[in-house]
Each structure stands twice: as C-alpha cells, then as structure tokens.
Design goal:
Layout: E1 7-12, E2 20-21, E3 24-33, E4 38-45, E5 48-53, E6 66-76, E7 83-94, E8 102-104, E9 117-122, E10 125-132, E11 151-159, E12 164-175, E13 189-198, H1 199-204, E14 207-210, E15 217-220, E16 224-225, E17 230-240, E18 244-251, E19 256-258, E20 262-264
Parallel strand pairs: 2-20
Antiparallel strand pairs: 1-3, 3-17, 4-5, 4-18, 6-11, 6-15, 6-16, 7-10, 7-12, 8-11, 9-10, 12-13, 14-15, 18-19, 18-20
Length: 269
Amino acid sequence: MTEDRIEVSFTVNGQQMGSVVEPGDAEIAFEVVGRDEIALVELIREGKTVEAWAPASSGQPESADDTYRFRVEYGWGPMKGYHIYAWTGALEVVDGEWPNPVPCFASAPFYEHRRKEVGDHLMNTIRWQSHTSRGGSFTTRNSNTVASANDAVCFEVQGTEHTRLKLDMSCHAQNSIVSTAVDWGTANHKGTANQEVTIGELLDGRVAIPMGRPSSWIVMHRAHKKSKLTISGGCTFSNCDDGYVYLRVTQSNGQMAWSSPICFGEEKT
C-alpha cells in the first residue's frame, strides 16, 4: 500500500511544530485531515500517551452535497523483477466537481519520459501517468529499494451519492535494461480496463478491476465523506517546565502520522 498523506496541524501556545516554548502553562490545539477515517489521535508527552481523541458522531443530518475522498490504486500481479508496467489513467466525473487530486507514487523516475505525474484538468477529466515494478528494479532518491509495486492517486469529488465516476486505465508491460534477451519475449503486453461506478457504490465498499493482460489489478478503494476524515481538538496542561510533546495519528486503515515535537524550556542560541 502506498503511504497516505495525512495533514497535521499542531501548536502549543500558538507555536508551530519544531518550536521551543517557554515553561509554564501549555495550551495545545490540533487539526488532522486524513485520507481515510480517523481512528485515534494521541498526545504523547515524554514517550507516554497523556490525552487521546476519537471521532464522535455529531448527530447532525448530512448534507445532500458533500466532498468525498477515495483512492485508485494499481500494480498487483505476478510481475518479474525485470518488468516495468507503464500506466496511464483518466478519471471523469459526471454530475460533480473536482478539487485537486493528490498523487501517492512509490518511486522516483529514472527516465524523464517515465516521470510520474498528474496532468491538468481537462473539462471534468483528470489524467495521470506512472510506472510500477518489483524486485528492487527501482530505488528511491535515498537509494533504498521500494517495498511496494503499487502506485495510487487520491481524489476528492464534490457531489452526491449519485455522482458517476468513469475510470479508464491502460498498461504496457515492458522490460527493464537489466533483462536478458529471453526476457524481452515474455512481457511485451498491452491492456486496458474501463469501469463506471457511483459514489454511492464506493461508499458501500471498494471495487476491484482486473486488467486481464498484462496480469494486474486496479482497486477503487472505498469512498469516505471528508467530514469523517477531519478531527480537531485540544487541551491544557499546567507547570510544563521541560520535556516535549508531539501528536500521533492513526487511521482506520492502519496508516499513521507523527508531528514534529514541541519542546518546553529556554531556547538556546
């Protein structure tokens, strides 16, 4: 699974993450916006959880028009270490509007023409391209091998449960420069996949789409209302003379995020 980009705002007495605040009373405030439903937010002080927050139902009726978040993920399949799967995707929204998509790509490009990118909006359609691989064929910018072959794009849609989403994906299975002559004859395949779903169907659960050939899968993950992905809160502590505090966030899908710490004491120059 590609890592979710969880947005965390965390302050102590109005000072941002990474700050050193003067000893005394501490007024803590935070806001978290996730890519999946928030399960738990913890305030860690000196390595121990001292406060925790979980989402609570507001009891208010939900608006007919809302913002929904979901993720399109792709790259599963019996891929050899020398294979490169070159993907292009397009997602059209009918009876809805697009805010900006967020790419969740696993590795850096090694050729300019394989650069992973999300293109501009064209009318009501978003297009993107990326590549996936296995076996450590690609490395990240810090030279670590990539553990997952999957890429993903996170989307927000403003609409209703009847808003329709039309997904078009194509994949070309090629071989890397480290493959042998025999390898070149085993994976030069092209395939396409098309799927149309509604936001309501994605609210009920994810949709899996087989590519066929090349053998791979695409998943349109379960959609969530953005209002369920956001949580804010705070608390107050007295006599904070030294030490540090930070925030830890856990989503329902297991993805986590940590804030940078905020320290108490006199800032040294």
